[in-house]
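Journal club prep, shared notes

We agreed each person brings one worked example of a sequence with its structure written out as tokens. Mine is NB-ARC domain-containing protein. I'm keeping it raw so we can talk through how to read the token line rather than staring at a rendered picture. Sequence first:
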Amino acid sequence: MGKTALALHAAHLVADRYPGGAVLLPMSGPDGAPRPAADAAAALRALLRCRDGGAPCLVILDDVVHPDQVRDLLDATGPGAVIVTSRLGLAALVATHGPAVVQLGALSPRESDALLTAVLGRERVAAEAAAARTLAELCGHVPLALRIVAARLLTRPRTRLADYAEWLRRDLPARLALPDDPRMSVPLALDGALRRLPAPLADAHLRLARLHGRITAPATAGALAIPETEAEELLERLLDHGLLEDDQPGTLRMNELFRAHALRRTARTGDEVPRAVTATARRALPSGAT
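Then the structure, token by token:
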């Protein structure tokens, strides 16, 4: 959803307030493994020693996996400020430190239109307004997907938006990727997100993609063959990981792009999703760490 990009953008906007500059400290590896707190603290101390005479500095702790990774670091930054990015809600950190919270999610239809217009130009988007809306819907209004679509269309100025939408629809979300940069790939990004989850949660996500429309605890309990109370806790964890979104009280929903990816994953590995979730969900649910 662009957490790191937003943090870096914010750092540039407030650069004049922090004469000591800004540092970005990765808090997890490419595989999602959390960086040990002691290692992160040593790296941060080394970075801060290089700053200008102890002047206020802006520290970005990027892709935090668990609150315990950063609690001690928050006291080590001196007179500066800290931006923490995470795929998780980090509610425990919010409770103890009370920071300002910015929750990123899919864009609104208006924001999606503004993004496409900014890249492709007002004239091209206005000429095929309905097709532009269809493209945004196929992308689930996810910023990464929209940027990939916009980049492809920018390099194909003669391609009609409607034709491109139809081509995209035939193999979604596999075609939401740029061949010259593996980082610009919706399937790879979502595969990575699932690899970070405990296996029962990942399996539950794949199963819940088969539910149409709103997702409730009773429907989840039936789909996964678990008690409703455990279904509620499982849904809370998927919500915390950003794989579900709030809809109405008692109901959640899955982004249509995430759903398309999950259904494609299921089809690729066979008709049946592994039933590990029904056997091991009880063991996986109590732990808040990933």
